[in-house]
Amino acid sequence: MDAGFIGSAVTVLFFLLFIGIVWWAYHKENKAKYEEAAKLPFQEGDDGADDRPV
Prior knowledge:
elongated
C-alpha cells in the first residue's frame, strides 16, 4: 500500500463519517429534542444567578 491509497481511504472514511453525523443531526426523531433544548434559555426559573454576593 502506498501513501496515495491510504490518503484516499482516510478521505472516504471521513466523508462517510461526516455524512453519518449530518444524517443523525437532521433525523426527524431528534427534532423534538433539539427544539426543547433551543427553548431552555427562555424558560423562567430560579437558577440562583441573581443571588451572587457583590
